[in-house]
Amino acid sequence: MVDDAILEMRAITKEFPGVKALSDVNLTVRRGEVHAICGENGAGKSTLMNVLSGVYPHGSYDGDIVYDGEVVRFGSISDSEKAGIVIIHQELALSPYLTIAENIFIGNERASGGWIDWSKTETDAAQYLSRVGLNDNPATKVMDIGVGKQQLVEIAKALSKEVKLLILDEPTAALNDDDSAHLLDLILELKNQGVTAIIISHKLNEIKKVADSVTIIRDGRTIETLDARSDEVTEDRIIRGMVGRDLTHRFPEHEPKIGGELLRISDWTVHHPLDRERVVVDHANLVVHEGEIVGIAGLMGAGRTELAMSVFGRSWGIDISGTVLKRGQEIDVRTVQKAIKHGLAYATEDRKQLGLNLIEDIARNISAAALEQLARAGWVDRNREHVVAEQYRREMNIKAPTVSALVGKLSGGNQQKVVLSRWMYTDPDVLVLDEPTRGIDVGAKYEIYTIINRLADEGKGVIVISSELPELLGICDRIYTLSEGVITADIPRSEATPERLMQYMTRIREEDHV
Amino acid sequence: MSTTTSASPARPSALQRGLAFLSGELRQIGLFIALIVIVLLLQVLTQGVTLSPRNVSNLVLQNSYVLILAIGMVMIIVAGHIDLSVGSVVATIGALAGVLNNKLGVPWWLTIILCLIGGAVIGAWQGFWVAYFKIPAFIVTLGGMLLFRGLAQILLRNTQISPFDDAFRKIGSGFLPDLGGGTSYLEPLTMIIAIVAIIALVAQGIRGRRSRAKNGLLLEPLPWFVVKTAFMAVLLFAIAWLLASYRGTPIVLIILGVLVVGYSAVMANSVFGRHVYAIGGNLRAAELSGVNARRVNFLLFVNMGVLSALAGLVFTAQLNLAGPSAGDGFELDAIAAVFIGGAAVTGGIGTVGGAIVGGLIIGILNNGMTILGVGTEWQEFIKGLVLLAAVAFDVFNKRRASRAGA
């Protein structure tokens, strides 16, 4: 046992229907340290923090939380905040139309008898702002300051709640280099003032800079905790802990038959729609051959989905530049209609929000992108539509009694098969599959891999975007790594290891350019 | 094994299949049954006046314009929008028709064409703001509601315009020519139209079944098909009988019939209709599947404008007068008809048939209560309750269904 621990989470287990998100996780945080938590996407980091902060109330998990020497049972976020635990999420929770001062005291207003005391609000706000090193007028609206400063406002807000344990979830994911450096300095400064911090981050160089200890989580379990004072904390060691697991029999055998060049994306640059200054995809170059399965590996916020969607009919981003060539000929993919016509298909990461019409049946969802094929002079042949959908239902093994079943009632795996059927029916040359197995059980994953292999065998090019490295290593012939919008490596299957991928996925720009 | 199409391991009995099928159609059937119950109830309460030949003829005439509006409105609502301006557009087009036909002496047919074009222009105006400027339809058409009410008054110079020439008035209150010369017990043309319609209905039903069977698709149970078709045929025949024993077929009924059949087909079977449902169901997913949502939204409002103009023509012709308050509150009747007809507030769900039945329920309640001498205050009160009850029934049904299915 550590003598002066501010927090001990003991044997935390949290289950969701069908999934064990955390199993027997232990975490000990010393008073006054900066403690980093590392893990792949979906390893259980956020779930653990949600357990700690009361988002998942006491009783919905197993295990004990000992905070400040006492076993605590938080029923909600406000309980944990009263105890001095404040979590700052990746997506900032500020109201853009309110001022900095108003945001700092939301839910915690400086008031007497139900009436806001404005002068106290402003003077107190100014005091907290100076602690985080922000000199802006507290009466400025939050929408008028940049993301970096908004992050500081969030921290000022936490300080106003008399925070003892500050949790930051990917605090620098949306920040530029200067803002990131400033934020990390602030975390160290607050540490000197006695604030303990837990920082969840993908950026290993940042962790090395600020963390006193590092806990690595993989597949909902604690792998190890490294102490910067005694252990040697290297990026390699963290990476090994994050990815080390075996990859046997989870993927169907596949002998690739790779042909000529099919699609080439060159010099592709995309800017953020809300912040023109921010480059989200930076001069990316990418090639897919006939019959080839190409992976794109990257951590959250690396720009994977943004790259795919910007190519597919400019569905994301602004100030997009670069060219797309198919079999050597430049093609115009500026609208989704044109992209589909040129044989591109993009199956979205978020099936429910962006992929499917949940209140319609299977047949109509399958035909949605190729309705013209079923129509004569603008009239849809509904019988043929049903016949086609029925074929896909059987071929893809979609588990539903008929194709008239509503898509909203299907399981995740079956919904994904509907999405794949839709794009297969457009008869594309290149399919981009964004997280094709997210939220799907192991059996259905295997079926989806088999379908991907079959598509490649038909001579199509398949691009798979995935957060799961084993998946990419298991099915791809070649893998691109993406880090902060830059393609950092192009690694053939034979040379790819999880460690090597993770190295390039976390490589930052400076290293890349020297 | 190779010939079977539905490969369910244990085949459920015919009865089970029939019940499962009916529960799927519950919403449609329930609405229809509600309509029939209301008609029968009023028939008893009004001691037979409701279904008298003269009243049935009036029902058709008096509800035609709201039903025309409801057809356009259901498409707008399925796409996830709303149109509050249709009542004002009715007034504007009425005024335009008055200026053209009465003041300028434009012939009836040219008046109609120009008014429909006027409606299309109004729709394009609103569609532009909604589709290309992305202003919520609620705001655009709230503005339109004031704007076109004002425009109507400007065109009318704050007076009323009347009369219209006889040919123009026919589209509102005219009847098809009486082949019996006014002497026969039943007007022959009406009965001929009814019989042709019934033959078309049966033929279409059989053709559809054959085509489905040929493609190896699941058929609705045969007894159900026979009962449904027979019921519809009898209903058509009965209505025709009532109309034929009065003054024959109103011209608006023919217009309405063509619109209902045409727009039902568009919504169910055309690429355009599918795109409307796709946009309403999940806009982003539709766009990422290659649907040009802006174009569809624009065309929907153009279409609504044309239908509003048509409703305006019918209404003006019926009253033989263009007034500044024409069409007041029509938008709410049309919207209520659509929601009683089972459309979802969030878009993606709704049918032309449902909207028509919803509109008929409102129209028949209005008519019956007027015959019974119920004051307008109570009429409004009861209509409000009916709207609420219909939607509450829907919500209740959906919850039950989602609990039953896993």
TrEMBL record, chain A:
- Has keyword Transmembrane? no
Location of the ABC transporter domain:
7-244, 263-509
Q: Which UniProt keywords apply?
A: ATP-binding, Cell membrane, Membrane, Nucleotide-binding, Repeat, Sugar transport, Translocase, Transport
Quote the InterPro entries the UniProt record gives: AAA+_ATPase (IPR003593), ABC_carbohydrate_import_ATPase (IPR050107), ABC_transporter-like_ATP-bd (IPR003439), ABC_transporter-like_CS (IPR017871), L-arabinose_ABC_transporter (IPR053466), P-loop_NTPase (IPR027417)
Protein species of origin: Gryllotalpicola daejeonensis
Q: Which Pfam families match?
A: ABC_tran (PF00005)
Q: Which domain of life is it from?
A: Bacteria
Encoded by which gene?
Answer: gguA_2
Q: What is this protein called?
A: Sugar ABC transporter ATP-binding protein
Q: Name one GO molecular function term.
A: ATP binding
Automatic annotation (TrEMBL), chain B:
- The organism sits in which domain of life? Bacteria
> CDD domains this protein is in?
TM_PBP1_transp_AraH_like
Please indicate if the UniProt record lists Repeat as a keyword.
Answer: no
* Subcellular localization(s) per the UniProt record: Cell membrane
Q: How does it sit in the membrane?
A: Multi-pass membrane protein
Question: What is the protein's major site of localization?
Answer: membrane
Signal sequence interval, chain numbering: none
Q: Which residues cross the membrane?
A: 29-46, 67-100, 106-125, 137-156, 185-203, 224-244, 250-277, 298-322, 334-362
> What Pfam families does UniProt report for this protein, alphabetically?
BPD_transp_2
Keywords of this protein's UniProt record, alphabetized? Cell inner membrane, Cell membrane, Membrane, Sugar transport, Transmembrane, Transmembrane helix, Transport
Checking InterPro entries in the record gives:
ABC_transp_permease (IPR001851)
What does the UniProt function comment say about this protein? Part of the binding-protein-dependent transport system for D-xylose. Probably responsible for the translocation of the substrate across the membrane.
What is the designated name of this protein?
Answer: Xylose transport system permease protein XylH
